């Protein structure tokens, strides 16, 4: 009798383990190590090793990277991690007969550090043609199967933003703004366009992307790409970024492109006094006013037209002060609060964890903001960035 019971238990455990394996196989997973990735017949190990710091640079003019899938295996898509924001490229997918079945170019994608390509079910080989010494850090190819939420399939930004959050460095988006992104971007399902003024290196960029993905955001942020430096002298700090007019022009371009109802950005005093935080706050307010003027920064009027921002909020401002509630749990966040989700996202900024921490209700209170510019009147409820706008909750 004992032997029969033991046999039944063993059979049940075996069936459960087989089921688990089948479930794992059904989930999308990386198959890059079984693909053949070459350029000119040479294997490109540098871009299949999972290390962002080992890169491959295309030749002057153009180069072609070939990705051959494992024989008899299908792939759902491919993620390319560019070392710098991607330049011109062409991507072609071929079937078993060598016929091009999908063809796309950089014009279809937002110029950023990552690009996701959906594969046709009949694709057996992909070809990436890059130009002007484009640098690739890594290529990741994934199998078909049930969607894997850990795979970062980034989408282009929406045509219009409800809120544009403009920050200086990678990690500022959660340090000083708390639960803004998970609350408005996930709970309220609003279009929150994040703009980073500087790029602090490829690893910091990836930390920011990982942070956003962990918070439930799948639309790409914008990286303007100014140099990060702590320069006390205001004129020298301005000079590093090309002067106030150049900075304002860059910000106006993003406003006219993303068409936000509301802009949220840094404290006039730069939170803990960072000179570049101060510059962003100052230039952002002037840019919001200039974006609606067709005689200002005419180089972007033709491409995007003009746009009137309804409101601008600065962190910690005592002008038109409002306080945001980041401490209410929501079903959309798995019954976590926006602040808890933001704190989890901040854990992806691994290079910064020993230097800074998030604060609510203290000197750098990430719930306190001030309305410093408005075309729609003052806030009444003082608890919603979108109050009095077309995107109001």
The portion of residues assigned to helices is 25-40%
Strands across the major sheet, in which order? 13-12-11-14-15-17-16
- Annotation field: number of helices: 9
What integer is the average pLDDT?
92
Describe this structure in words.
The chain is α+β, with helices and mostly antiparallel strands. The chain folds into two domains: 32-143, Jelly Rolls (Sandwich), CATH 2.60.120; 163-374, 3-Layer(aba) Sandwich (Rossmann fold), CATH 3.40.50.10320. It is 26% helix and 23% strand. The protein contains nine helices and 17 strands. A seven-stranded mixed beta sheet has the order 13-12-11-14-15-17-16. The longest helix is centred in the first third of the chain and has 25 residues, at 2-26. It starts with a helix and ends in a 19-residue tail after the last strand. The relative contact order is 0.12. The model is unreliable at 5-14 and 16-23 (pLDDT under 50).
Annotate the secondary structure layout:
Elements (H helix, E strand, L loop, with lengths): L1 H25 L9 E4 L2 E2 L12 E2 L4 E7 L6 E8 L6 E6 L5 E6 L8 E5 L6 E7 L3 E9 L19 E5 L4 H4 L4 H8 L4 E7 L3 H13 L7 E5 L7 H7 L3 H15 L3 E4 L9 H16 L10 H4 L6 E5 L5 E3 L14 H9 L21 E7 L19
Parallel strand pairs: 11-12, 11-14, 12-13, 14-15
Antiparallel strand pairs: 1-2, 1-4, 3-10, 4-9, 5-8, 5-10, 6-7, 6-9, 15-17, 16-17
Helix pairs in contact: 3-9, 4-9, 6-7
């Amino acid at each position: 009798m004992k032997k029969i019971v033991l046999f039944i238990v063993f059979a049940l455990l075996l069936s459960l383990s087989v089921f688990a394996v089948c479930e794992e196989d059904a989930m999308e997973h990386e198959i890059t190590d079984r693909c053949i990735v070459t350029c000119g017949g040479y294997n490109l190990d540098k871009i299949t090793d999972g290390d962002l710091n080992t890169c491959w640079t295309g030749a002057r003019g153009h180069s072609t990277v070939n990705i051959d899938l494992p024989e008899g295996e299908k792939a759902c898509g491919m993620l390319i991690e560019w070392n710098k924001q991607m330049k011109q490229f062409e991507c072609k997918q071929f079937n078993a007969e060598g016929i091009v079945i999908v063809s796309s170019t950089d014009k279809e994608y937002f110029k950023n550090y990552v690009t996701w390509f959906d594969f046709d079910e009949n694709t057996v080989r992909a070809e990436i043609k890059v130009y002007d010494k484009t640098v690739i850090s890594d290529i990741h190819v994934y199998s078909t199967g049930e969607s894997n939420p850990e795979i970062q399939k980034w989408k282009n930004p929406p045509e219009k933003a409800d809120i544009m959050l403009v920050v200086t460095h990678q990690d500022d988006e959660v340090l000083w703004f708390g639960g803004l992104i998970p609350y408005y971007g996930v709970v309220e399902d609003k279009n929150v366009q994040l703009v980073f003024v500087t790029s602090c290196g490829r690893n910091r960029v990836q930390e920011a992307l990982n942070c956003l993905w962990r918070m439930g955001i799948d639309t790409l942020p914008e990286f303007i790409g100014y140099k990060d430096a702590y320069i006390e002298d205001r004129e020298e700090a301005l000079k590093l970024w090309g002067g106030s007019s150049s900075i304002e022009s860059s910000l106006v371009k993003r406003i006219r492109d993303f068409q936000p109802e509301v802009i949220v950005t840094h404290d006039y005093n730069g939170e803990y006094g960072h000179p570049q935080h101060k510059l962003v706050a100052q230039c952002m307010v002037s840019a919001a006013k200039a974006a609606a003027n067709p005689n200002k920064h005419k180089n972007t009027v033709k491409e995007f037209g003009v746009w009137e921002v309804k409101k601008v909020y600065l962190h910690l401002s005592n002008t038109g002060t409002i306080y945001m509630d980041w401490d209410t749990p929501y079903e959309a966040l798995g019954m976590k609060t926006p602040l808890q989700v933001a704190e989890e996202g901040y854990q992806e900024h691994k290079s910064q964890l020993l230097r800074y921490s998030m604060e609510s209700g203290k000197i750098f209170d990430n719930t306190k903001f001030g309305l410093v510019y408005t075309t729609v009147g003052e806030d009444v409820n003082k608890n919603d960035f979108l109050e009095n706008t077309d995107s109001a909750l």
